[in-house]
Design goal:
With 215 residues, the protein is of the alpha+beta class. The chain has a domain of 71 residues: SH3 type barrels. It contains five helices and five strands, in the order H-H-H-H-E-E-E-E-E-H. A five-stranded antiparallel β-sheet has the order 4-3-2-1-5. The chain is flat, with a radius of gyration of 25 Å. The N and C termini lie far apart (59 Å).
């Protein structure tokens, strides 16, 4: 009888732990992000207000609100010509710093799929019977010409994970890929959501359905 209750208590404890662990991790991450973002400007704004009212003042979350407003303002001016020139000047300065340049360029490549189409590193979405016959995989064409040999018409297809910047590029013959009627933006949503968000029916570029597996 004691063994039965011991087993049940252990099972209940483990079930409770597994139920609370995701909530605890989520709370810790949100608390960390809130403190980190709020601490960037919050302390400075609190100090400024304290000087103006001549007494200590602390407004929780004020730094988060100000940071969000700044991001929105920057987003509004991001497509303005003078702002692009300013960013270009900053990037030119970063290019002169060896370590910082590598870090900045890597960061740009990660966020590039979320920017405008002119900056996207991928040209189109394709369907490939990969990694085996009967298994169809969506990929993003990263390079249209992977070989200078006239008899080797090869392209580079990137197969990302749901983290986008993680995945693997594969060099394939152009004959092995099939164009899909899906934008790069929709494909990114598909990958990020692990396939949950996306078209209910995958269609080829000519409107036909995905072909049956090769024999």
């Amino acid at each position: 009888m004691e063994d039965t209750w011991t087993v049940k208590l252990r099972r209940y404890f483990l079930s409770g732990l597994l139920a609370l662990l995701p909530l605890f991790i989520t709370l810790k991450v949100l608390t960390f992000l809130f403190s980190a973002v709020d601490g960037v400007l919050g302390k400075r704004i609190d100090a400024l207000i304290s000087v103006l009212v001549d007494q200590p003042v602390h407004v929780p979350g004020l730094g988060v609100v100000v940071t969000a407003v700044l991001v929105l303002v920057i987003g509004f001016f991001a497509n303005r010509l003078f702002f692009k020139r300013l960013i270009g000047s900053i990037e030119a300065g970063i290019e002169r710093l060896p370590v910082v340049r590598s870090l900045y360029n890597a960061s740009r490549q990660i966020v590039a799929p979320f920017t405008d189409g002119a900056k996207q590193p991928f040209s189109r979405v394709v369907l490939v019977e990969y990694p085996m016959v009967g298994r169809w995989t969506l990929g993003l064409v990263a390079k249209e010409h992977a070989s200078d040999m006239p008899d080797e018409d090869r392209i580079v297809v990137f197969f990302p994970s749901n983290h986008l910047h993680l995945g693997y590029p594969v060099i394939l013959s152009r004959k092995e890929v099939i164009d899909i009627d899906m934008s790069v933006e929709d494909a990114i949503k598909f990958f990020v959501s692990c396939g949950v968000v996306g078209h209910e029916k995958l269609l080829l570029s000519n409107g036909q359905h995905v072909p049956a597996p090769s024999s």
